[in-house]
User: Fold this.
Amino acid sequence: MNDNFENQDFEKRTDYDRILNKFGISKIDEILPRIGKENIFFRRGVVFAHRDFDKVIEGIEQFRDYAIISGRGPSNDLHYGHFMLFELIRFMQEKYSFKFFLPLSDDEKYVFRKVENLNIAYKLALENAIDIFALGFKPDNVRSYVSSMAPRIHYLALNFSINKTYNSIKAAFGLNGEENTGVGYYSCIQAAHILHPTIDYNMPVVVPVGLDQDVFIRLTRDIAKKRELTLPASLYIRFLKGLTGKPMSSSVPETCIFLKDSEKMIKRKIINAFTGGRSTIKEQRRFGGNPIICTICDFFEKFFVKEDKKMDEILRKCINGELICGIDCKPLLTEMILTHQKQHSNRKKETIKNLDKYFDHEIDLSVLDKEYDAI
Assistant:
């Protein structure tokens, strides 16, 4: 769902099997033949695990309607790590006819002090929504809302609050008791986001998340059990590597590429990116590179290079020393990102015209920057 409680870097953990077994999560390989490999997120292991998605497939085969949900906490612009997640959702929606629910969690960012006030979060929420919907989502297949402006969500959260003790929330998130009261209560709001489609529309839900966010899924499933609701299913994705070699984070701009980054900024970030290359061209030609640790290669494999033959060629040439990071791969990724940004900017024009159709409540477009008038 959202990106708080990042106290454990699961992406760097090597004991995935132990974590999956501990929390009752299954590897996606077991049901991959039923899903198919037409999408690179499944074909290349970006989606690597699930909980109860086999039951979702069975329900779909019986013509039951499902919802897919992923929140967006508006504290900054979107970067390509976020973008990858919503591309996955768009594919899943088209494949399985899911209804897409998008809570824009301004309340979360406020209680966690990621934004100074709710007005800032509201403006960012609309801007983030434009970027997300411009991926190709259709208004009639989307239900979106700014969380603080959704009384129904806070009504459900209040109802759910009696199903959780403070000690259970404190233990789940490692709270020390010094946090503001909104931090503990937010897990109830998160549960309301997830279970809202099931309660109000009779749609069981699928939630794509990173493994570090599974704590929210577990807490919500506990509430669903007590309320005798269909338990939310989940899909688990591997994150894009941060450009510095450290985890990608909006609060560390050098680790990621934002959709609003200028051409100059993109070139600077990519040229400085951590790779698996050697210290000199001579060594690279002789010993080859290491694509496993390369952030540039990670962008290729998880998002930008869709053709398997092309991806295999890049990997082979990297290992054989035929590709030089600064001469071949970094300029290629730069070109791909700039092309993608231009195409995305063109799609945003139509999205802005119809933005109000995506929301369950009225929105105020006057808060947007003037740059959106020119799009």
Q: What stands out?
A: The chain has two domains: 10-237, 253-356. Residues 1-14 have pLDDT under 50 and may be disordered. Strands lie at 26-27, 47-51, 67-69, 99-104, 142-146, 205-210, 233-237.
